[in-house]
Amino acid sequence: MLKRYNFSLGLTWLVIFFVIPLPLLQTLSAGLPAIYSSQSQAIYLGAIAYAWMLTSIYLATKPHWLDRLIGLPDMYMIHGIISILAIGLAYLHKFGNPSDGWIRTTGDWAIYLFTGIMVYSMIFMAGWFTSRIPFLAKLKRMLETVFKHELSVWLHRLNLIATLLVFIHVQLISYVTAIHPFMFVFYAYSSIVFISYVMSKVRSQLGDTRGTVMTNEVLAPNVQELTITPQKHYQLNLRMGDFAFISFPDLKGLKEYHPFSIVNPPSDDSQHIKLAIRGDGDFTKLLSEIKPGVAVKLSGGYGRYHSFLEDNDQDHHIVMIAGGIGVTPLLSIVEGSPERHISLFYSAHYDHDLIYLNQLKDWHQRDNFNLHYQVGRYSEADVLNHQLHDLPNNTIFLISGPAPMIRYWKRTLKKKWYSKWANVRRRIYLVIKKSPVNMTELFYVDIDINGYKSL
Q1: Using 50, 70 and 90 to split pLDDT, how confident is the model at 444?
Q2: d(CA 373, CA 376)
Q3: Which residue in 40, 49, 57, 246 has the fewest CB atoms around it within 10 Å?
Q4: What pTM was estimated for this model as a whole?
Q5: C-alpha angle 61-67-71 in degrees, rounded to nearest 5
Q6: DSSP string, 243-281
Q7: The FAD-binding FR-type domain covers which part of the protein (predicted)?
Q8: Cα-flanking dihedrals φ and ψ of residue 220, to 5°?
Q9: 391 burial class (0-12, 13-18, 19+ CB within 10 angstroms)?
Q10: How many CA atoms lie within 13 A of 145 on its CB side?
């Protein structure tokens, strides 16, 4: 399954980098007048930049088929990387192919918009940077009292205006519009992305699924448990370990979709969706004010936990390491996989942050479920010395929690097996749960006589 996953991810990169821009480059190269040959490289770079920007917009629509193939975190990563690369190519295009009049003006406006949004997004919407650069994290906390998430989403949509400016920019270049095969591909790409974006917005406004908040209870300090009942004539495609996007169309400040992991397995007979949400941001802090009966829109499910576990043998041992609110997606896996052998190491900063502890203790009565919990993070010795020698040849690690905790365990597991188990043939699978956006990221460590490799 992981070979298929990595093949899919690699193929996605290949298609985006080479296949998508290729028709634009071929038609442009075949029809470009010889008089512009000295500027041809810069012109080609502009075409690639436009193709990547359109791809970035399409990825922003969160296509379900691609999420199930490579996962939403990788989609967002690709979205961010190709956007930055496209802006870089746009600058090379600008300086390598000078112009004037409205051609120059529309191009410059587009680049300035793209650049400003990129800088803003790196602070407010790119958790990868803020989780690793303390200065950016501090700056974000200072500014987010003014720049709420809903405002950030709307500012991010200025990318559409910038892309429209590029579209107009191309229409003003007579020697390009004279290349009819190129313009056919140009219009086709633009139309496909435009239609995909409009359809995603229509689904967003109508709601993939409508529902009602049945209960809203305090689960722990600063943690709310929402129970939502979807309407029967709608259907969510949820699997255990998934997350869903929710919004509250009638409440100010809660109208934009946010992702949260489901706590109960979707096969639950109650037909309810249970979410445990910590109040970290402006959206989540308002959830405590929601009353039963409030309308909610849902979109999903997203995630690759289910397909990952389903494609591995049922006798594979599962070791879970969870921190705080990061336990939420693992709960649906434990409850929905009574036949699997599971060990859970669960920690939090304070006693009251160990949510659903009574339920976990009940599951501990199973012969194949082992629960370990404590206040304060587990160390390498706490988990590996306790569990390592008894691991079967195929073990799945599910790590869920804050980004620093995830990075620690990722480094620790790789280092441990590289140094201690280099002569032992074993296969260890790591599924890393990203926080706070409740998405998953797959890592694979293949332990053999050559050491490890991460794919």
Answers
A1: very low
A2: 9
A3: 40
A4: 0.78
A5: 120
A6: EEEEE-TTSTT--S-EEEEBSS-TT-TT--EEEEEE--S
A7: 206-308
A8: -160, 165
A9: middle
A10: 4
